[in-house]
TrEMBL record, chain A:
Name of the protein in question: Iron(III) transport system ATP-binding protein
Gene Ontology BP term (one): quaternary ammonium group transport
Gene Ontology cellular component list: ATP-binding cassette (ABC) transporter complex
Species of provenance: Winogradskyella epiphytica
Upper classification of the organism: Bacteria, Pseudomonadati, Bacteroidota, Flavobacteriia, Flavobacteriales
Superkingdom of this protein's organism: Bacteria
The keyword RNA-binding belongs to this UniProt entry's keyword annotation: no
TrEMBL record, chain B:
GO CC terms in record: outer membrane-bounded periplasmic space
Domain of life according to the entry: Bacteria
SUPFAM superfamilies tied to this protein: Periplasmic binding protein-like II
InterPro entries: Ferric-bd, SBP
Organism this protein belongs to: Winogradskyella epiphytica
GO molecular function: metal ion binding
Positions with a binding annotation for Fe cation: 46, 233-234
Protein name: Iron(III) transport system substrate-binding protein
Automatic annotation (TrEMBL), chain C:
Signal peptide (UniProt feature, chain positions): none
TM region(s), chain numbering: 27-47, 73-95, 107-127, 154-176, 197-219, 252-270, 301-326, 338-366, 378-401, 421-443, 479-496, 531-552
A Pfam family of this chain: BPD_transp_1
Domain ABC transmembrane type-1 residues, every copy: 69-271, 342-547
Swiss-Prot/TrEMBL keywords: Cell inner membrane, Cell membrane, Membrane, Transmembrane, Transmembrane helix, Transport
Membrane topology: Multi-pass membrane protein
GO biological process: transmembrane transport
Name listed for the protein in its UniProt record: Iron(III) transport system permease protein
GO CC terms, sorted: plasma membrane
Main localization, broad class: membrane
Cited InterPro entries: MetI-like (IPR000515), MetI-like_sf (IPR035906)
Subcellular location: Cell inner membrane; Cell membrane
Length: 334, 352, 554
């Protein structure tokens, strides 16, 4: 339903690219999360899709029609895309109901529709209030109702929860996606938080420095990450650098980058008990109790430091750590 | 608040359109009847009494007087730009220099009027009948009665004498009356003499030139200097000022008409000419003729303390008390001719 | 795929042209049209530059230019100094402290803007003159009159500063009232003293706001003609008039204007550079209103005097002098015509204010919608009119409009209609000139309020299927209303005071109060000029008070 082809955008006439050669597909009805740090180009990407920026190269096709390319540009108001901003962007001088009505003024049953939308987000009785009289979470729900009211074919949520505190955001995220699921709209969900992405997205697209690093279903991102960066986004990961290779005496392929998931690192009181290919002795220099698990800062035989997690409550001062070659993740050198 | 603003805006548009409509009415009415109903006057004379004269003219002839007030320079620029389409019928200035400049620019036309030619002394009108003087003003020396003996004063040229060091007050050289005075000195004595005269006066100045003619008179009384070069009619105005202090000030100074023993005191005229492309030429001539009628001349002298050009009209009492004087009969065209040179000499001499 | 090619290809000439073709829209064309319309007089003056200066240019450079440069430089320095002292101190005191009559003083401090500076100049000359008000007062008290000579360069700097400082006051106070509270609280929490907070924190942060006001003041200072001429100080503007009229060389005048414009552009660039620096630091958070302190003991009187001094000097004293003159001349000057002239002035001012603001809005929003950054930069040309003396603009307007008029007359003549000038000598030319001259006055307050509206708000509207124009009417206009109204009021006041442009372009039978006042003053009837001056002041005062209400509401 949405096809992005070699999309590029620069804000300084080609010196730096906010978005570089981005291509991907989005199927109808799918929820796709775009994950990346700030400055990775997420916001530029959605602004391009929404028509708020114009691409310097490449094209965007939606529903079989080109909406942006080098020779064509469909105005944002003609694109039928819903967009929810991080800062809510409610019209401060209009009431909640008027905000929701705003995009559907041409509909016949606009009043009923707007009220329906407000009911859907659980603010049915607040239509006559003004945005500043609402809490942040409520404002964001109004923004959602406003974006959904015109029945957009694509809904973009641009970091919708990052202005809210942690407790509220998990709750609101679940609520919002429950609502969205009812509407069966295709969703692009921009976030810098992997938890957000994992909990709601069918597919996740990783952006780094304006480039797509990987786009896949959540499970694959964990098992087969393309880069060390992706690996570390979805679980704590240890980079097996040259020194660690020496410490564990595990010669690995040159010109490649290797890592191991923290939970795949085996900690045991003796070398015999440990069932691993590569192993080394270590001294515990720091123990941090984190609920049911313990974080250990270890000093390896070779003098290297390593941080690992363990469920074991009784840790001696000297232990053995190791791992198996099947668990090693291998990437092309970055 | 919004409503107030909208209301204001509507009101203003109504008023503005009203003005426009009025204007259109004027135009259409003139177009419908005959074009001989108006005379368009570009004037530099900003004097209130002039309005009365215009009203008197309107009453007498039924010709409506439409006025644009601005400085003569701006009016000349305006006429130049408007060219053939210029609505101006009459140009009135407060000095002869600008009139002759307008003539040189081809903005005026020669007219035939026996009244004007006969009544106005020949040195006060253009040789080609393109402009005519309406009133005279003399550039005189005002002195502090308590400090200066009139016998010590003689000519403009004498002002460079060492005895006046730090005693002369005069306004800026950007003023047209000073420029005309300088032009007359160039015409009479030549450029080189004019330049050394300007340098001599600058050396004798009591202070850097500033303010108006009235301010120079006040400064004389305040003791900043002893003598000031000013126009005659300002003294008349000060003597009749609503401000008692000004009257008192004016009473403390004496008037001296320089160069009585040679060429005479420098005079200038306020004058008028008919515009080259005047749409209402006949009215324009009637209008100028009216301005030198006895009743108009009476108003000029009574309300503005100027010397009438009409010899039959007596100057107002205050002026008469200053006595008769010999005036420089230099053809006033020369003032326009030498005006630019005058400004350059002022700059070179450092007369600000 | 085409990894290597994409990056370089994206900015190849071919792609650029393709994009330009895609991105150019009706808004780009409209913006260019408006800019052209507004810049037309300036373009015509610029073209004049190519015909070379007049023959006296060498004479001017030799004898006058050093004086013009030195005097203008002196005025810029001294006025900046005085204006900053008056403007910033009063703005800080009324925002930070609560004292006797503070509320009244807040709007009284804006009132000096209502008096044209040349009239303040006349009034002060009258006050310190021999036989003037001070003289009389001293005599009444039986004292020896020590005459202060105010009619010189220093006096002119004082006059201009005291009548123009409200520009700095207004912008500094807007900053202190709306932005400063969080910072102030943070500073207090850190235990920093009052004085240090002001000098180390408030002053540097308010700098862009202050400099924006200062640039307006300096433009007015450099453009002043009336006061400088009367006080005998030769500046660029008096030089422009001198070379144009006395030396009869418009080309030379154009050269001097070009030099003046160069100086002013340097000032504008300076301001741009200032504002640019602060963009990184200012936050968009909506701060709460500043908490006012009540000063104690001596401070109470120090602050009270510091705030009332500029009001007394800039407004009360000159107005008293004018009223005194008005009383003694009322019988000869005042008549019913005055009411009519006042109404006309008022109507012209409000109509031109609305037109000018309308153009400013078009320029700001059309260029925003045009998406081409080049167009946005070009659109700034539209505000240059403020930097150019009114008389020069008047001529710049007459050249093209007369050409158009002549063309129209010819066309009409072909169809057998005999017509006079259609644009010149009518309100159209005058309103056009005001729009060109005062666009910057309208542009700045609108632009700065527009910047406060987060982009996501109009963006949401567009994504919701509403086009640019409707978004503007329904969303943006309501949000920038205060800025728009302030702009209307500021232009209104400026038009009320405007002189040289009005003199040249005004239609028959339309008089403005400023023209009336000038007519008297230029005939050395300064006393008689007091009544029209007072009318200007009182007509301009009403919107000034209105403007203050707007600012406080915000």
């Amino acid at each position: 339903m949405l096809t992005i082809d070699s999309l590029s955008k620069s804000f300084d006439k080609g010196k730096n690219f906010a978005l570089e050669d981005v291509s991907f597909n989005l199927k109808a009805g799918q929820v796709c999360a775009i994950v990346g740090e700030s400055g990775s180009g997420k916001t530029t990407l959605v602004r391009l899709i929404a028509g708020l920026e114009r691409p310097d190269h490449g094209s965007i096709t939606m529903g079989g029609k080109i909406i942006a390319s080098l020779d064509k540009f469909v105005q944002p108001e003609k694109r039928k895309i819903g967009l929810v901003f991080q800062e809510y962007a409610l019209f401060p001088h209009l009431t909640i109901l008027e905000n929701v009505l705003y995009g559907i003024s041409k509909l016949k049953n606009k009043k009923t529709r707007a009220q329906e939308m407000l009911d859907l987000v659980g603010l049915g009785n607040m239509g006559s209030r003004y945005p500043h009289q609402l809490s942040g979470g409520q404002q964001q729900r109004v923004a959602l109702a406003r974006a959904l009211a015109p029945e957009p074919s694509l809904l973009i949520l641009d970091e919708p929860f990052s202005n809210l505190d942690t407790m509220l955001r998990t709750q609101l995220r679940n609520e919002v996606f429950d609502i969205i699921k009812k509407t069966e709209v295709t969703v692009l969900f921009v976030t810098h938080d992997t938890q957000d992405a994992l909990s709601v997205a069918d597919e996740i697209l990783i952006l780094q420095k304006g480039k797509v690093i990987q786009k896949d279903v959540a499970a694959n991102l964990y098992v087969k990450p393309n880069t060390l960066y992706v690996a570390s986004l979805f679980g704590s990961t240890v980079h097996i650098n040259k020194n660690l290779q020496n410490a564990f005496r595990c010669p690995l392929k040159q010109d490649c980058c290797h890592a191991i998931r923290n939970e795949k690192i085996i900690v045991s009181p003796s070398s015999a008990e440990a069932d691993c290919e590569y192993i080394t002795a270590a001294r515990v220099i720091k123990k941090i109790q984190l609920g049911d698990s313990t974080q250990l800062v270890l000093k390896l035989e070779s003098g290297e430091q390593l941080t690992v997690m363990t469920q074991d409550q009784n840790i001696a001062d000297t232990i053995y750590v190791g791992f198996n070659s099947k668990d090693i993740l291998e990437f092309e050198q970055e | 608040m919004k409503k107030i603003l909208i209301a204001l805006a509507t009101f203003s548009i109504v008023v503005a359109c009203g003005d426009q409509n009025k204007k259109k009415d004027d135009q259409s009415s003139t177009a419908e009847t005959t074009t001989s109903q108006v005379v368009n006057v570009y004037t530099h004379r900003h004097y209130e009494p002039d309005q009365n004269i215009f009203k008197m003219f309107e009453e007498k002839t039924g010709i409506k007087v439409k006025v644009i007030n601005a400085s003569a320079d701006e009016l000349i620029q305006k006429m130049k730009m408007e060219g053939k389409q210029s609505p101006a019928d009459v140009l009135i200035t407060v000095d002869a220099g600008r009139l002759s400049r307008a003539k040189d620019e081809g903005l005026l036309q020669s007219i035939e009027s026996d009244i004007l030619e006969k009544e106005i002394p020949s040195h006060l009108q253009d040789v080609d009948n393109q402009w005519f003087g309406l009133t005279k003003r003399a550039r005189i020396i005002a002195y502090a009665k308590d400090r200066v003996k009139p016998e010590d004063l003689s000519t403009y040229e004498d002002l460079v004498n060492k005895k006046w060091k730090g005693k002369i007050l005069v306004r800026s050289s950007s003023n047209i009356y000073n420029q005309s005075l300088m032009a007359s000195i160039i015409a009479n004595n030549g450029e080189a003499a004019a330049k050394s005269w300007a340098e001599g006066v600058v050396a004798n100045m009591a202070r850097s030139p500033k303010g108006s003619d009235r301010d120079q008179v006040k400064a004389v009384v305040a003791g900043e200097g002893d003598i000031a070069i000013v126009n005659s009619y300002y003294i008349g105005k000060m003597l009749n000022s609503p401000d008692a202090e000004e009257v008192k000030t004016a009473q403390q100074i004496g008037l001296f008409f320089p160069n009585q023993n040679d060429r005479g005191t420098h005079i200038n005229v306020s004058g008028a000419g008919v515009a080259k492309y005047a749409p209402n030429k006949e009215n324009a001539i009637l209008f100028i003729e009216y301005l030198i009628s006895a009743e108009a001349q009476q108003v000029f002298t009574e309300a503005n303390y100027e010397y009438p050009v009409l010899e039959s009209v007596e100057p107002v009492k205050d002026i008469k008390e200053w006595g008769e004087f010999k005036e420089d009969k230099l053809g006033l065209n020369k003032l326009g001719k030498h005006n630019k040179k005058a400004v350059l000499i002022f700059d070179e001499a450092g007369w600000k | 795929m085409k990894q290597a090619g994409n990056k370089s290809e994206a900015f190849s000439l071919k792609t650029r042209i393709k994009r330009l073709k895609r991105d150019i829209n009706k808004w780009s064309v409209l913006t260019l049209t408006i800019v052209f319309f507004l810049a037309l007089p300036i373009i015509f003056i610029g073209v004049e530059l190519f015909s070379g200066p007049g023959e006296t240019w060498g004479h001017i450079v030799k004898y006058l230019l050093p004086d013009y440069i030195w005097n203008s430089f002196y005025l810029v320095i001294v006025c900046s100094f005085l204006v900053l002292i008056f403007g910033v101190s009063s703005a800080w005191f009324v925002s930070r402290y609560d004292f006797l009559f503070r509320k009244q003083m807040e709007w009284l401090l804006i009132l000096p803007l209502a008096i044209p500076s040349y009239i303040v100049g006349y009034a002060y000359a009258g006050i310190f003159d021999y036989g003037g008000s001070m003289d009389l007062l001293f005599r009444q008290l039986g004292l020896e009159f020590i005459r202060i000579d105010i009619m010189n360069r220093a006096g002119l700097a004082f006059i201009l500063s005291i009548s123009l400082f409200p520009y700095v006051y207004v912008s500094a106070r807007a900053f202190f009232l709306n932005q400063a509270n969080n910072l102030l609280e943070a500073s207090k929490m850190l235990g920093v003293g009052e004085r240090k907070t002001f000098f180390k924190l408030m002053l540097p942060l308010a700098r862009p706001a202050i400099v924006a006001g200062l640039v307006l003041v300096l433009m007015e200072v450099l453009n002043d003609y009336g006061a400088a001429k009367y006080y005998g100080v030769n500046t660029f503007t008096t030089g422009i008039f001198r070379s144009w009229f006395s030396l009869e060389e418009p080309q030379t005048a154009v050269y001097l204007s070009a030099l003046l414009i160069l100086i002013i552009f340097t000032l504008i660039l300076f301001e741009k550079w200032q504002v640019r620096k602060i963009k990184f630091t200012s936050s968009k958070t909506n701060s709460t209103q500043i908490q006012r302190k009540e000063p104690k003991g001596v401070m109470q009187w120090v602050i009270f005097s510091a705030v009332s001094l500029p009001i007394i000097l800039g407004f009360i004293l000159p107005v008293i002098q004018l009223i005194y003159w008005a009383v003694i001349t009322a019988s000869t000057v005042f008549d019913m015509e005055f009411i009519m002239i006042s109404l006309q002035s008022f109507a012209i001012a409000i109509v031109s204010a609305i037109i000018t603001v309308f153009f400013a809005l078009l320029l700001i929003y059309f260029s925003k919608w045009s998406t081409l950054t080049t167009i946005k930069n070009i659109s700034r040309i539209g505000v240059l009119g403020y930097a150019i003396p009114g008389a020069v603009i008047a001529i710049g307007i007459m050249i093209p409009t007369l050409a158009l008029d002549k063309w129209l007359i010819n066309m009409l003549a072909k169809v057998g209609v005999d017509s006079g000038l259609i644009i010149n000598g009518t309100l159209i030319a005058l309103l056009y000139a005001y729009a060109v001259r005062f666009l910057a006055v309208a542009y700045n307050p609108i632009d700065s309020t527009a910047l406060k509206v987060d982009n996501s708000i109009p963006d949401s509207s567009k994504v919701l299927g509403v086009g640019n124009l409707k978004t503007f009417l329904k969303i943006e206009f309501p949000l920038i209303k205060t800025g728009v109204f302030s702009a209307v009021i500021l232009v209104f006041i400026d038009v009320m005071k405007e002189l040289p442009l009005t003199l040249i372009l005004k239609p028959y039978h339309i008089d403005t109060l400023a023209v009336k006042a000038f007519e008297y003053a230029s005939d050395e009837m300064v006393m008689e000029a007091s009544i029209p001056s007072l009318f200007i002041i009182f007509t301009a005062m009403i919107p000034v008070i209105f403007l203050n209400k707007l600012l406080i509401k915000k």
